[in-house]
Write a structure and sequence with these properties.
The protein is of the alpha/beta class. It folds into 2 domains: 115 residues, Winged helix-like DNA-binding domain superfamily/Winged helix DNA-binding domain (Arc Repressor Mutant, subunit A, Orthogonal Bundle), CATH 1.10.10.10; 201 residues, Rossmann fold. It is built from 13 helices and 10 strands. Strands 3, 4, 5, 6, 7, 8, 9 and 10 form an 8-stranded mixed beta sheet that branches. A hairpin with a 7-residue loop joins β1 and β2. α2 crosses α7 and α2 crosses α12. The two termini are 37 Å apart.
Length: 344
């Protein structure tokens, strides 16, 4: 079976190009929602600023992180926020203001849609009248339950998995791990790469039935079929008992409350002394960048119930659910990295 390899040329800039539209949409949305006007008189406590804009915590986190990353506002999370010298170009009345120029984009469909999303705090696809959701939750009409759409979405994410998985297999500490559950594993590429790299490892790829049909085809080509099992399930049921769980680009699809629920289920499944691995993108703990991840956070916010989180936020969730997180993150590709945690 052919081993997984990562390309010599880093394709991350292509991913960033795909997400670049969110820079315009968030900038224009901030202007239309009155963010800069609200800060014209000086710093404003963050909660008061969020309430003035009429935003719930999740959309505020997405918008404010992007505005900090663009160096238009500044202020640590939870503290007063202030407009920056660059942000002052977006205030009315100055001889050099470009508010009107930026405002020309407010009529763009993407900007109007982003403003609606920020105000609703719910992805369009999750609304009853808007069709299938990108994610699966019991009682929700999900694209992951339909053969054609499940295949299309699963294969759309396969490219990133093929790029990141070989590097993840190199950096993940799996000594003493006999059985790993790749939770919400999708294509199964991450688990397959780990099994290829670690001959004594058994992997369970747990996902929805239609998704597993796609993964089974990849397994037949790449293997090792004798050590990777396809098991139907979902994030809100019971997980198989195991030595370790991998959550690769999973938690960012969910809000903090749901992330904690998933991690509690993981704690129940992992044996004492076992491990949990979060492979994901990470915002700075100050929630002021990196810009590329802040824009990806907007994409996640638009399509799912989640957003990008910082390493500090993930460590807080892990500690709250009985895990001891590592101090370092091992980078892989496409802005991703692996955070390991020990199950107490």
């Amino acid at each position: 079976m052919p081993p997984f390899t990562t390309p010599e040329l880093d394709p991350t800039p292509l991913f960033d190009m795909v997400r670049g539209n969110y820079m315009t949409e968030l900038l224009a949305s901030g202007l239309e929602l009155g963010l800069f006007d609200a800060l014209a008189g000086g710093p404003v406590p963050e909660d008061a600023l969020r309430e003035k804009l009429g935003l719930a915590p999740r959309p505020w986190a997405v918008l404010s992180t992007a505005m900090r990353a663009l160096r238009l506002i500044e202020g640590a999370p939870g503290l007063p926020q202030a407009i920056t010298p660059m942000g002052r170009f977006l205030l009315p009345g100055g001889s050099h203001e470009i508010r009107g120029y930026v405002g020309l984009t407010s009529a763009l469909p993407g900007v109007k849609a982003m403003i609606d999303l920020l105000r609703a705090d719910k992805p369009v696809s999750n609304r009853p009248d808007e069709g299938k959701a990108f994610i699966f939750r019991e009682g929700m009409e999900s694209a992951m339950e339909s053969g054609d759409s499940a295949r299309r979405l699963t294969m759309a994410l396969a490219g990133r998995a093929f790029i990141c998985a070989p590097v993840l297999a190199e950096v993940l500490p799996l000594d003493g791990i006999g059985h790993l559950v790749d939770l919400g594993g999708g294509t199964g590429v991450y688990g397959m790469a780990l099994a290829q790299r670690n001959p004594g490892l058994r992997v369970t790829n747990l996902d929805r039935p239609e998704v597993l049909k796609v993964a089974s085809g990849i397994l037949a080509e790449h293997g090792p079929a004798d050590r990777v099992a396809m098991v139907a399930g979902d994030l809100f049921g019971e997980y198989p008992s195991c030595d370790a769980v991998l959550l690769s680009n999973v938690l960012h699809d969910w809000n903090e409350e749901t992330c904690l629920d998933i991690l509690r289920r993981c704690h129940k499944a992992v044996r004492p002394g076992g491990r949990l691995f979060i492979h994901d993108v990470y915002l700075n703990d100050a929630l002021d960048g990196p810009l590329e991840v802040a824009l990806y956070s907007a994409a996640l916010f638009s399509l799912t119930e989640g957003r990008a989180y910082s390493a500090g936020e993930y460590r807080g969730m892990l500690s709250a659910t009985g895990f001891t997180p590592a101090r370092t993150i091992a980078p892989t590709r496409v802005h991703c990295g692996a955070l390991a945690a020990l199950r107490a």
